[in-house]
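Please discuss these two lines.
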Amino acid sequence: MMKKQRQNRKKFSRDAAVSSPFIIALILGVIVFAVFIGLHQRCEALGSNIAQLEKKKLELQNQVKQERSRWESAKSLEAVQRLLQRHHVVMTWPDPRNIIRIRRSAEEPVAAEALPTRHQYARAGGIAND
């Protein structure tokens, strides 16, 4: 009978098959890759958000143009006359004798800071102060 040879436990290595610097480099690589993917997804989301906002901006600019056009046509003399006729409102120009024109005297200051701070209203007997 033969004796079994015992293994020398000192020579038997229980170290990992892969060295620790390689594992550290691998972990760092995975972290860098995950950060890169996260940043890429964030940039893609921001890019699509910017595209949506630019599209909305163009739509709003078109709406502003349309509303300005509608307002310009609505405030024309013909449109106002049509509305007055539709609502059966009779309006005429005032008699020139009934128009009172208020002119600024030459002594009064014109600068905005020199204007009175209280409101002034015109009335039949003169100017009424607020």
The longest strand covers residues 120-123.
